[in-house]
Amino acid sequence: MAQQRSLFDSDLRNMLKSGPRDRPLSRRHALFGATILAMIMLVATWLASRPDASIDEVDNSQVEYDPLRSQIAQVLNARKKTAVASSAALIPNKSVVPLGSSSASSADRGSGFEVDLWPAMKELPKVTVSVSLDTKAIHAVQPLSAAKMADSVPTQTVASSTKTNWVDIDIRPGDSLTRIFNRLKLDPAVAITIAAHRKGQVLTSLKTGPRLKIRLTDGQFRELEYEKSLKQLLLVKTTDNGLRFDTVNRSFEVIEQKATGVITSTLFDSGLKAGLSEPLLYKLMSTFEWQIDFNTDIRSGDQFAVIYEERFLEGRKIGTGPVLAASFILSGKPHHAIRHTDSAGIARYFSLDGTSMQGKFLHSPVRNSRITSGYSLRRFHPILKVWRPHRGLDFSGRNGNSVLSTADGKVVFVGRKGNYGKTVIIKHGSNYRTLYAHLSKYGKKVRKGRWVQQGQIIGYVGSTGLSTSPHLHYELWLNGKRRNPLKLKLPRATSVRQNEKSEFLRRASTFSAALNRLVDA
Ligand SMILES: [Zn+2]
To answer: Strand order in 402-404's β-sheet?
Structure first.
């Protein structure tokens, strides 16, 4: 970052995000005009919409220390002070409202299902709007009464502040508290003291994102608020007796939402129309990725139903997810997914009978076979008589032995393929593919675009292509690259454990009934 740039330069770049980054910025009065114009638009948008409606526009990545920004925060904070006082966002030492049993345990571990929760926090109204404006400009063009302004100012951000110099920090990868203190021109020794404290340990490895606020007075550190998790904040305050550490629980409300729809064009369009968010739709698609190819399997008229959670923090929606249960009815055929959190706190999706939605690979595509040639980057080729990589496994077999698909998936290729001879390629989920080569013939129902099940016969051992004798050449592709199937850590499909099964089946039938009602309604 160019340190020499004036504050105006960097501010303007924030406002004109889409413009060229290196726009020459020499005429300050023109910039000032642009600043005022942008500010008028901003205020107008702000008032015209719900307080939180335009927040999506805010680019949090730009949140950095900036004197102008804090000036604004100061002004806005002063105006909203009364409003804030009555709606404290933080409830110290109050226990968390119990979340649904399925999600409480996994919310903190970042199990993948909650990952959008923090980003969703960006929807929270922020007082420190990313566009920095000169406070004088605000007074100049702001015809609104202070009362109206106070109404329009979101009351969420910094409830515990009585002084106003809060700076929002967007923690970047590799950031440390010391580094952040340096950026704010604060004494790094304070950061070291804080992080060295027993209760400040959590600050030694910061999570990225807009999780940190620091309050300054006259360039001195006063206070910080770090979001340890969505549910807990760590507060560190300087007092006359030194540093004070407090952990604050935030109270949550989780409600169950339902959505259903008939797919007219794409799942995405219809899902958005039904009120589902983009992250939720992506989650939904990845849940079903081993069962449904959303590019090709969806027909107009297919239906979906979803039951999911929405989270509220002090009355404000802060995130959606996880999906608790979902169903797709494609060409009349139902597919269900039910979320289940096991006793270890790990949440996964299962079909109604408790089998995992995620695939698992068989070790061998040929029964009673052994590996005659392993995966190697340097192998002496028996026919070509040269050293070349062998990025697959050769399984022994006699001509005509069955070749089985190693996992559920969709056939994406059936045909001759150069040295591979007769070949079948199957796609599993969105990341995996398996390839079966030198086949003598293909399985009966194996056509491009058809779904196959794990263990289904997809062809027969042969010696077509560049091959000395009948065997199966098997490859496993991950994200477009061949990998050693014996070394690669493959997804483990686990069914619901026996001791959790009856409870799961009970929940699953409740959910499937609810989903059916949704679809029928
Ligand atoms: Zn081979």
So the answer is: 402-404, 457-460, 441-442
